[in-house]
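Key result, reporting period 2: structure in, sequence out.
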């Protein structure tokens, strides 16, 4: 089992609590859902979520994903995981409250 992570404001997660899948806004705007490796989570939080309250960290088992997972370079050429489709809830093994 390999785990990757998705950061989501709790207010956004509530909309999908009773749905079989989760769709981040980036799925519509960029065609994929942004995720991070364990080593990338803190950098992602500091860069994009410093002033966002009530965050959740979804722990995602890559073996259970039903859509394509690609590791692609970001602006600094660091490879980040992207899921090309809705995130099926069976792949979410833990939901951790961050703040």
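The corresponding designed sequence is given below.
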């Amino acid at each position: 089992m390999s785990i990757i992570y998705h950061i989501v404001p709790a207010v956004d997660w509530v909309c999908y609590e009773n749905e079989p899948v989760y769709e981040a806004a980036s799925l519509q705007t960029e065609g994929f859902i942004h995720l991070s490796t364990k080593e990338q989570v803190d950098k992602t939080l500091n860069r994009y979520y410093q002033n966002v309250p009530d965050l959740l960290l979804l722990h995602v088992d890559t073996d259970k994903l039903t859509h394509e997972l690609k590791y692609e370079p970001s602006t600094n050429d660091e490879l980040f995981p992207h899921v090309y489709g809705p995130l099926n809830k069976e792949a979410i093994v833990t939901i951790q409250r961050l703040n």
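Residues 21 and 88 are 4 Å apart (CA to CA). The chain has a mean pLDDT of 96. This case is discussed further under Risks and Mitigation.
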